[in-house]
């Protein structure tokens, strides 16, 4: 069984740029959730994708967007980067059952200068 | 809106001492509560969930709806328990979205 993987591991961008983060879900999982974890904070829910459709969104502006592909992998896109976007971005996969456990990836560390 | 509060940023105990990591939540409905753990240089992983009512690595947690708490306990701390612990809540009808607390760093000293 392959676990959740994320790429890249680290990324440095400047304000105003755009970034794309990638996530491969665990084998057998069709649901992907994205979380932002700022320094010293717990993960905050950004949004969730199920069968290529957004299925729930947290309190994040529209410049945070995502995609899910037919193989259930996912992308998180952030436009017009701001300094406060600097954080660890976590991807978690699960089945579509609302009671299922979420399995987290190692995260992508984004630094915005 | 739901909220999870972990009042302690850092908890330091000696090996063999009891551990209690506090977690309080606010949610008007019937929540599902979890404890996630992150060991050094490892990914976030599920430790236990209240509906399972099981003991994992000697840790237990009981959901107290009256006090809206889900404290994590272990009678005798081990050095390998040193890690970051996050309490999380999933609301009914909220899909599979988790609301996390800010975490408590547990340090077990020899």
Q: Looking at the structure, what is the overall shape of chain A?
A: globular
Strand residue content of chain B: 35-45%
The H-and-E topology of chain A, N to C, reads as: EEEEEEEEEEE
Task: Provide the structure class of chain B.
Answer: mainly beta
Q: Describe the main β-sheet of chain A briefly.
A: 7 strands, mixed
Note the topology.
The complex is a heterodimer of chains A (113) and B (110).
Chain A: E1 5-7, E2 10-13, E3 19-24, E4 31-37, E5 44-50, E6 53-57, E7 64-68, E8 74-78, E9 87-94, E10 103-104, E11 108-112
Chain B: E1 3-5, E2 10-14, E3 19-21, E4 24-26, E5 32-38, E6 45-49, E7 60-61, E8 72-74, E9 83-90, E10 99-100, E11 104-109
Parallel strand pairs in B: 2-11
Antiparallel strand pairs in B: 1-4, 3-8, 5-6, 5-9, 7-8, 9-10, 9-11
Describe, in plain words, how this protein is organized in 3D.
The complex is a heterodimer of chains A (113) and B (110). Chain A is an all-beta fold. Helices cover 0% and strands 50% of the residues of chain A. Chain A contains no helices and eleven strands. In chain A, the strands form two sheets. In chain A, strands 2, 4, 5, 6, 9, 10 and 11 form a seven-stranded mixed sheet that branches. Chain A has a four-stranded antiparallel sheet with strand order 1-3-8-7, with no helix packed on it. By secondary structure, chain B is mostly beta strands. Chain B has strands at 3-5, 10-14, 19-21, 24-26, 32-38, 45-49, 60-61, 72-74, 83-90, 99-100, 104-109. In chain B, strand 5 and strand 6 form a beta hairpin.
